[in-house]
């Protein structure tokens, strides 16, 4: 089926006039008539019928037009996306990042990148989630890049460390531990503990901290969102370990530094290895690595 014939058909269906359609398409009227006749012959039905000096779609034409418009629109969108993909200065980037990443971290990176003259026409889409969920989306091409925790047994994923987070203990303001500014995890085991779901990477990190201190927390509930954890602590439901992020300032909790074991958590830029990417995406990836490199060298 000739693609030009489908484009001619769409224009004629809109204008319902051969002369006007031929002028818009910059072809002769006989050429347009021949193209429509060829398309009708190929399909085995009449797509148009005469109505005075004009034409109108038959029921077959109306039926076929829906599919032609869908197909041509998709092709035009694909052409547009392909041009963006090959462009050095424009396009769109799908970025996923973990919910517990510092609130201003991603907006600051994006703002700094877009301030460069070459990339002011780049558009971003964002999604948040848990590391394993984001990694699956990365492999399914739902995201171009993600900011997440390191996950073992992912040979097709490249992980580049870009920043680190300090994990801290949070307790209610009236809690027996609230008078302390620094604490060893062994001193927390007698108190009810709120943890993350076992499927989350942060839960594994926290479990490793207790394992290193040869202790086991008294877990009374498991949740997924860091804001929910902080809220439960504020209402005196238990104590918890969270990354030291600004969201903690919104809750009535005491933040306590963990002195033992080392409570550092690294955040990584993850991408699919050996995958062809656009020049714009490569520029953004290199920008993140360059901008965050000094943070890890402090």
Explain what the structure shows:
The chain is α/β, with parallel strands linked by helices. It is built from nine helices and twelve strands. Strands 3, 4, 5, 6, 7, 8, 9, 10, 11 and 12 form a ten-stranded mixed beta sheet that branches. Strands 1-2 form a two-stranded antiparallel sheet. Strand 8, helix 7 and strand 9 form a beta-alpha-beta unit.
Computed structural class: alpha/beta
Round the Cα radius of gyration to an integer and report it. Answer: 29 Å
Number of strands: 12
Please outline the major beta sheet.
10 strands, mixed
Strand content: 25-35%
Features:
DNA binding; 298 residues; WH-like_DNA-bd_sf; 12 strands; two-stranded antiparallel ribbon; 28% strand; 9 helices; DNA-binding transcription factor activity; 10-stranded mixed β-sheet; alpha/beta; LysR_HTH_N
Question: Topology of this protein?
Answer:
Elements: H1 3-15, H2 18-25, H3 29-43, E1 48-51, E2 54-57, H4 59-86, E3 90-98, H5 105-114, E4 121-129, H6 131-139, E5 145-148, E6 157-172, E7 182-184, E8 192-196, H7 201-212, E9 218-223, H8 226-234, E10 239-243, E11 253-260, E12 264-272, H9 279-296
Parallel strand pairs: 3-4, 3-5, 7-11, 8-9, 8-10
Antiparallel strand pairs: 1-2, 5-12, 6-10, 6-11, 6-12
Helix pairs in contact: 1-2, 1-3, 1-4, 2-3
């Amino acid at each position: 089926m000739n693609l030009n014939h489908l484009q001619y058909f769409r224009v004629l269906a809109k204008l319902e006039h051969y002369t006007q359609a031929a002028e818009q398409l910059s072809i002769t009227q006989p050429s347009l008539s021949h193209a429509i006749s060829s398309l009708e012959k190929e399909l085995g039905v009449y797509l148009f019928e005469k109505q005075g000096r004009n034409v109108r779609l038959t029921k077959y034409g109306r039926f076929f037009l829906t599919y032609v418009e869908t197909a041509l629109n998709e092709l035009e969108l694909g052409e547009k996306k392909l041009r963006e993909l090959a462009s050095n200065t424009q396009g769109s980037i799908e970025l996923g990042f973990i919910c517990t990443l510092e609130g201003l971290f991603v907006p600051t990176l994006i703002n700094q990148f877009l301030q460069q003259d070459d990339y002011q026409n780049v558009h971003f889409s964002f999604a948040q989630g848990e590391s394993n969920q984001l990694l699956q989306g990365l492999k399914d091409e739902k995201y171009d890049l993600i900011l997440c925790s390191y996950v073992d047994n992912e040979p097709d994923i490249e992980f580049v460390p870009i920043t680190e987070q300090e994990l801290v203990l949070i307790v209610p303001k009236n809690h027996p531990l609230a008078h302390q500014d620094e604490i060893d995890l062994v001193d927390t085991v007698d108190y009810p503990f709120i943890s993350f779901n076992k499927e989350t990477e942060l839960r594994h990190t926290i479990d490793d901290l207790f394992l290193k201190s040869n202790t086991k927390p008294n877990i009374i509930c498991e949740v997924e969102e860091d804001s929910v954890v902080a809220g439960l602590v504020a209402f005196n439901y238990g104590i918890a370990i969270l990354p030291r992020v600004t969201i903690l300032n919104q809750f009535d909790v005491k933040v306590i530094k963990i002195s033992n074991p080392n409570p550092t958590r690294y955040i990584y830029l993850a991408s699919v290895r050996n995958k062809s990417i656009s020049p714009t995406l490569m520029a953004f990836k290199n920008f993140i690595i360059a901008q965050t490199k000094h943070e890890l060298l402090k």
